[in-house]
Task: inverse folding
């Protein structure tokens, strides 16, 4: 029983990370039709910035941790806004070329991170509380899992609030549904593009700082490895659907943890298998629109 | 060297396409007959130049030509031959990617799976079974044919960007297997060393690098021929038609799914063969051969060269491989090490320069190297560039 609870919470923590990456990906794809390969680079930059903050301000207290979360998210957001403004916007309506540009950017960015911070993983210290465990139903769960879960829940709530209750949220939702109609109404969708990229980048940067505490290290390849699972989550959840991304992130991560434990480390395969099955029966994903 | 896509669209004829009308329009400036004659003459000239080029490449290991700055030594030395052979294998691999993207409009992010399956499949079979090279290659090929059918038939249920993501996921699964090192079969991060017991003697050792070079050249020529044949066969035309307008092809009574699957499998099988020769050339298997990075490298080569052009793929493959080699040498040079950090860090990362170059090409040089060369020569003023962009957008 205790093992099941432990796996469940570890899975939820990992799912939270997947969600933070996939949410941005899914919104960007839904609104702009761009598969953003540079999203992993936003995450890695967030993680490294958070690490730099922790290193320079003497690490292990809550103030530093919160500061690193904020600065990490800001770094991701600035990088993302810059990407949209300088690269994506120039290739208006040219979706594949937009994807290619993000591919090139991610190559260059990861190489630059290699050059600045080195290729070896650097280890990170969090508040002492992270190292403790909390007892739930006999399972000793590392505390950093809860931090990831709470942060992802807050981001989900904030995003839902933003999308449902604010004017820009409404424009973005309408743009995801039918962009040409929104443009025809005389609304400038381009601002919405930059905004969505910024929000996605902020979520990825936040995810990067949390991921560095979850895994205990930062490396230039951190973003790339999470990005692949975020892609899978996005496809399973249905492209463009935030709720779909949330459900799929949790399902994929929990499935992965259980398969890793009970089926001899086959978690990654089971996830790809799940992707294949979802595609066979629902090509548009769990909550994707049927076209 | 510029006629390939032109014939692709004018000789096509399986479906009426808007693109064809435009390309048949005679040039406004020239007389009505002259461009056609020039076109034929150029095709002959290109073929002659191609044959002469291949002959020169065949003779290269026997000659003593130095290209300082490009090759590490005179052309008969093993180091230079190794690099040239690598260029040719990468050009061939880029050609198979051209078949996917340029012909069928399939933006796959999982092409490395089949290359890696060729590399690791052959390496593992040679390690564990006591059979000669050719049966081992046949067995690997059989596995890849089955694998490509399974993965292709699932991923082709979606198209465009979702297709890219799904193929990436499958390739990642392959990459994970290699990294996990099941039962010590793949060697994990270390990779595998080629076991040479059952290899014919003329393929083993540094002394025999010229033989491996000729093998790589033969592979490139054969892949070019097969890709040309497939592209201009009925299936190739149907694939190009599917790329342009899938619905119309379906209405005509053809099955887009089967056509795309065929191109997918052919391209996978070809790249698997290239992977096997790569294993012989490198005398070992490395995890990079099955990584997403490799697929992205192939994509970068094709886009650098010019999407939709076979010569573009070849030129892109050779150019990228040489540049990668040169930039690595530059990164380790004393001149770069002496620079201040702001310049030293970016310059010592070859991928940073290649990535930036790639972004610049996509932004400012649509049509890649071949398209730009044509525009500079002002032959068909930017047509290739437009064509490349159209092919790319049709993949979406």
Result:
């Amino acid at each position: 029983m205790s093992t099941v609870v432990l796996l469940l919470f570890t899975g939820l923590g990992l799912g939270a990370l997947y969600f933070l990456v996939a949410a941005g990906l899914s919104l960007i794809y839904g609104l702009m039709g761009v598969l953003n390969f540079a999203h992993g680079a936003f995450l890695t930059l967030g993680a490294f910035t958070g690490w730099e903050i922790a290193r320079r301000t003497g690490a292990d207290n809550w103030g530093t941790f919160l500061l690193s979360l904020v600065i990490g998210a800001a770094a991701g957001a600035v990088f993302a806004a810059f990407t949209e403004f300088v690269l994506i916007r120039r290739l208006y309506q040219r979706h594949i070329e937009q994807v290619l540009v993000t591919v090139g950017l991610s190559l260059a960015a990861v190489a630059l991170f290699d050059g600045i911070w080195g290729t070896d993983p650097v280890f990170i210290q969090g508040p002492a509380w992270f190292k403790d465990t909390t007892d739930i139903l006999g399972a000793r769960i590392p505390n950093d899992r809860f931090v990831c879960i709470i942060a992802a829940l807050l981001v989900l709530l904030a995003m839902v609030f933003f999308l449902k209750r604010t004017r820009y949220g409404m424009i973005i939702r309408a743009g995801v549904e039918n962009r040409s109609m929104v443009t025809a109404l005389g609304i400038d969708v381009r601002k919405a593009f930059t905004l969505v990229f910024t929000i996605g980048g902020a979520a990825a940067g936040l995810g990067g700082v949390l991921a560095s505490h979850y895994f205990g290290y930062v490396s230039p390849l951190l973003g790339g490895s999470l990005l692949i699972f975020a892609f899978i989550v996005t496809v399973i959840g249905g492209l463009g659907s935030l709720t779909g991304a949330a459900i799929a992130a949790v399902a994929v991560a929990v499935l992965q943890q259980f398969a890793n434990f009970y089926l001899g480390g086959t978690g990654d395969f089971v996830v790809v298998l799940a992707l294949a099955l979802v595609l066979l029966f629902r090509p548009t994903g769990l909550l994707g629109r049927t076209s | 060297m510029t006629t390939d896509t032109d014939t692709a669209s004018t000789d096509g004829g399986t479906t009426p396409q808007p693109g064809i009308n435009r390309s048949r329009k005679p040039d406004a400036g020239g007389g009505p007959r002259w461009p056609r004659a020039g076109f034929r003459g150029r095709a002959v000239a290109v073929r002659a130049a191609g044959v002469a080029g291949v002959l020169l490449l065949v003779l290269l290991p026997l000659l003593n030509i130095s290209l300082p700055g490009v090759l590490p030594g005179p052309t008969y030395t093993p180091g230079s031959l190794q690099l040239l052979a690598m260029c040719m294998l990468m050009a061939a691999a880029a050609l198979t990617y051209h078949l996917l993207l340029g012909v069928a409009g399939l933006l796959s992010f999982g092409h490395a799976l089949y290359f890696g399956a060729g590399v690791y499949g052959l390496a593992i079979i040679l390690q564990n079974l006591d059979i000669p090279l050719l049966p081992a290659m046949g067995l690997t090929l059989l596995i890849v044919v089955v694998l490509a059918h399974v993965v292709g038939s699932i991923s082709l249920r979606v198209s465009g960007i979702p297709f890219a993501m799904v193929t990436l996921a499958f390739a990642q699964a392959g990459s994970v297997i290699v990294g996990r090192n099941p039962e010590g079969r793949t060697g994990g991060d270390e990779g595998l060393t080629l076991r040479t017991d059952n290899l014919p003697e003329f393929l083993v050792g540094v002394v025999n690098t010229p033989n491996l070079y000729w093998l790589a050249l033969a592979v490139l020529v054969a892949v070019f021929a097969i890709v040309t044949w497939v592209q201009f066969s009925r299936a190739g035309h149907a694939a190009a038609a599917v790329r342009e307008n899938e619905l119309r092809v379906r209405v005509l009574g053809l099955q887009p799914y089967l056509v795309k699957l065929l191109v997918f499998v052919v391209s996978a099988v070809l790249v698997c063969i290239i992977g096997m020769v790569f294993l012989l050339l490198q005398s070992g298997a490395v995890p990079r051969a099955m990584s997403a990075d490799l697929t992205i490298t192939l994509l970068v080569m094709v886009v650098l060269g010019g999407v939709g052009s076979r010569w573009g793929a070849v030129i892109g493959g050779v150019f990228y491989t040489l540049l990668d080699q040169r930039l690595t040498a530059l990164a380790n040079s004393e001149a770069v090490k002496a620079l201040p950090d702001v310049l030293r860090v970016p310059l010592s990362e070859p991928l940073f320069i290649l990535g930036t170059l790639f972004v610049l090409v996509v932004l400012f040089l649509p049509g890649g190297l071949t398209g730009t060369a044509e525009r500079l020569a002002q032959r068909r003023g930017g047509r290739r560039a437009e064509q490349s962009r159209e092919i790319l957008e049709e993949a979406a």
